[in-house]
Amino acid sequence: MSFPTTVVLAIYGAILSTLTAIVQVINHLRDRAKVQLKVRKNMKSPNMGRRYDGMTMVIISATNVGRRPITITGFAMRPLTKKGEPILDYYLPDVRPPLPCEITEGKYVAAFVNQETLDFDKVACWYAWDSSGKEYYLSVAPRHKRLLSWWRRRQNNEVEKQPL
User: Fold this and answer.
1) How far apart, in whole angstroms, are the C-alpha atoms of residue 45 and residue 37?
2) Is omega for the bond preceding 163 within 30 degrees of 0, making it cis?
3) Which of 134, 137, 136, 77 is nearest to 111 (CA)?
């Protein structure tokens, strides 16, 4: 049994175009911008200057683990919201290198916070955002606490895109 030449070419073209589409999707997913946040507690440095002498710090770093360069424009901490409390996020101004900072593949930017001023039980998440407005989150509170906090924020007329 033999197939006509046009059928064989049509099958070959369908297989080739499907494989090409799969390769393009894989390349797109591999090459997109990805930022990984990491929090390190109980950090001290003896040679950071008079401002930091004897201070225990929390270091929040944003590392570009993707292939595209990203410009990080800010860091913040979102506390868990309790009923009746004002809704606010805490901006982290002590960042090195200074913001805005373009980070290429494998590079990072870090924010520093005095650990004594933080209550880690009240932190819902840490986040950073880039120049296009995309936010990268590192959730630290349990999911049920974050959902309850999101619900309280929503009840206080602060609209968010999605729960954390």
Assistant:
1) 21
2) no
3) 77
Q: What are phi and psi of 8, to 5 degrees?
A: -60, -45
Burial class (CB in 10 A: 0-12, 13-18, 19+), 111: buried
**Nearest residue to 96 (alpha-carbon basis) of 61, 47, 125, 128:** 61
Least Cα distance to 35 among 149, 116, 136 occurs for 136
The class (CATH top level) of 33-155 is mainly beta
Amino acid at 27: N
Q: What is the DSSP string of 44-102?
A: --TTS-GGGTT--EEEEEEEE-SSS-EEEEEEEEEEPPPTTPPP--EE---EESPSSEE
Digitized pLDDT (tens) for each residue of the chain, 164 residues in all: 677 889 889 999 999 999 999 999 998 888 888 899 999 998 887 776 677 777 889 999 999 998 889 999 999 999 998 877 777 889 999 999 999 999 999 999 999 999 888 888 899 999 999 999 999 999 999 999 999 888 888 877 655 555 55
